[in-house]
Amino acid sequence: MMHKALYTFVFLFLITITSCQTEKQPDAQQIVDQAIAAHGGGRYFKSAISFEFRDRQYRALRDGGAFVYSRTFTDSTGQQVRDVWRNSGFTRTVNDVEVELPEEKQKAYTASVNSVIYFALLPYALNDEAVRKEYLGEATIQGEPYHKVRVTFAQEGGGEGYQDVYIYWFHQQRHTMDYLAYSFQENDGGTRFREAINPSTVGGIRFQDYNNYTLKEDTPLENYDRAFEASKMEKVSEIVLEEIEVNELIRNDR
């Protein structure tokens, strides 16, 4: 009887420990929700955001599920080009006249507009329906504690880059998205690691510039934080947003 009681005690003890460990396992969805809240939360959902990036003007208008993304620039011939991507599709105008484009170019220009705005508004898009999140564990970068989350995409609704893979590092206390790494397929593919710098808050939304790095060694994407800590990264560019403006959309139902 004594041995049976001992075995029962040990069994219950192990179940308790396992349950506690399960309860303490961070949830990727909760981590992303906290990050979105820390970066702007509901201010993303009904807003008109504009900024300049590499001599091009970008604008992102979101009203719930409706969106209009655009970029405007002057081409090498002096003509004003405006690309607009909305729920209904993509259009390009040159000097205010709409031009017809083959489907291949429409997809390329759509992806280009979306890519810039996607990164500018991170982590907002990480709750899109096509996003798949997985918690990878804890990490320490420059002495600070982070949660590491992998993001992949379902093919349906995942866009042209649905095969891309992202790793995000969210600060455990501040909940800010301070680092990210990603692999991409277009233009022969590759990887990048970004370090957030120069954070600023405009209209209640946190914006960040980035140091953009590459790694020539064959290293799993989820280990790019270790390569960064070991100073193995090569800086290739800076991602800088200028002239940022945020306006809240106010619906007049009268």
Characterise the protein shown here:
There is one protein chain. This protein is an alpha+beta fold and 254 residues long. It has four helices and 14 strands. Strands 6-5-4-3-2-1-14 form a seven-stranded antiparallel sheet, covered by helices on one side. A seven-stranded antiparallel sheet has the order 7-8-9-10-11-12-13. The protein is globular and about 55 Å long.
Strand and helix layout:
Layout lengths: L1 H23 L3 H12 L6 E8 L2 E8 L2 E9 L5 E7 L2 E6 L2 E3 L3 H18 L10 E11 L2 E10 L11 E7 L5 E8 L5 E13 L2 E10 L9 H6 L4 E6 L2 E7 L6
Antiparallel strand pairs: 1-2, 1-14, 2-3, 3-4, 4-5, 5-6, 7-8, 8-9, 9-10, 10-11, 11-12, 12-13
SS elements, strand count: 14
| Number of contiguous helices | 4
Overall radius of gyration: 22 Å
Uncertain residue ranges: 5-22
Q: How large a portion of the residues is in β-strands, by DSSP E?
A: 35-45%
Distance between the termini: 79 Å
* Envelope shape: globular
**Helix-strand category:** alpha+beta
Reported for the largest beta sheet, the result is: 7 strands, antiparallel
* H-E order: HHEEEEEEHEEEEEEHEE
Indicate the mean pLDDT. 88
The percentage helix is 10-25%
In the sheet with the most strands, the strands line up as 6-5-4-3-2-1-14
